[in-house]
Design a protein that fits this description.
Helix content: over 70%
GO molecular function: gluconate transmembrane transporter activity
Number of helices: 20
Order of helices and strands: HHHHHHHHHHHHHHHHHHHH
Subcellular location: Cell membrane
Membrane topology: Multi-pass membrane protein
Oligomer: single chain
Strand content: under 5%
Main location: membrane
Protein name: Gluconate transporter
Radius of gyration: 22 Å
Length: 458
Amino acid sequence: MGVFIFYINVVTLDEPVNNHLSMLVIFFCIVLLILLVSWAKVNPFLAFLIVSISAGLCLGIPLDKINASVQKGLGDTLGSLAIIICLGAMLGKLVATSGAAQKIAEVLVSAFGTKYIQLALVAAAFVVGIPLFYGIGFVLMVPLIFSITYKYKLPAVYIGLPMLSALSVTHGFLPPHPSPSALVVLFHANMGVTLLYGVIVGIPAIIVAGPVLSQFLKNIPSEPLATFRAEEIPQEKLPNAANSFFAALLPVILLGITAAFPFIGDNKDYLHKVVAFIGDPPIVMLIALIVATYTLGIKQKKNMGQLAGIYTDAIKDISLILLIIGGSGAFKQVLTDAGVSSQIADGLKSFNLQPLFLGWLIAAIIRVSLGSATVAGLTAAGIVSAMLVKDPSINPNLMVLSIGAGSLAFSHVNDSGFWLYKEYFNLTIKDTFLSWSVMETVVSVVGLVGVLILNVFV
């Protein structure tokens, strides 16, 4: 590896790395990361640091700038996710240990039956995922998935993947999530129409990538993290159904209210500021945890010492996940600072392709290269936005969805979602590729097909 890095730096000294060499470096780094984690058994966080620094050297980033890129990527990623994931883990642990997840699972299974539990969870995740950011939705839904897995002896991947496919669709396709919302503004699209089209395109994508795909993945072995494995609690000690659903879904309720406020509230500026503050995801999770501490903790005869122990255990169990996510952010930042995404996109401009497909393709390639769906979507939007000005026949609402679908393509080792799923479900790298990466790709491809079909009729 050292000879390879030396060669690259000699060749690229004082000149930008060309497109072909950039792709070679990305391929080399991804292969190196996979080998370090799966073959050499290196801690994934350390592997990310090694690969990030190697990528910086290979891509010609000055030596005095590489550490800054690594630190910025790690800090920016954890800065936006650490509070949400930690508070979500605490809430999830409490929902699991208090029996609330057990109660919710019993109510859902009683209502739909074990035969249709997948559809119940998909519907719940789709509704929850519209106002909820992906990270919150993931850590909030995991205890429910695992509770059903343990109680009814169902395969974790078989139960979990359909729910997570619904969360992915809402994250990539639907406002008010960051990337779709930004694309709506950039393309001067209509948010209501985009949301409607997104639902039309998203439902088939969820069905194919969720319940249909999971039928082929029942045999994937998975022993999810023990921190979310709730002990079977006697019926008389369980919280009631209303309390259980309220505590688990309070983040959804708060975000839903704050999202609807501009349409139902008055125009007083101070009220908008208050609602915006309360609706910020970390504040939402903090409020939800405080309420759950009382309703599922103190009200259930748990003292603060017991609750503190539950929360400490939750943080211990997700500490490595946080570091891995931070490491993936460092890798992404190095590639971004090296200008890799811009080089790839510029090379695609010369291709004479259908605009909606081109938008999807650019977003997909950047997603594969950098890992971040949001960065892929926004970068692709900046590239194709000029096309919409020159060609008014392109439907801006469908371009939002096309790029959103592309931004979900083939999540792999440079995506924090890949590692969240792998570590929470305790899967091997191979099985994570076979389930998570395939699911995300199916969502992306089916989403593109839906957009192209819809384009014929609107």
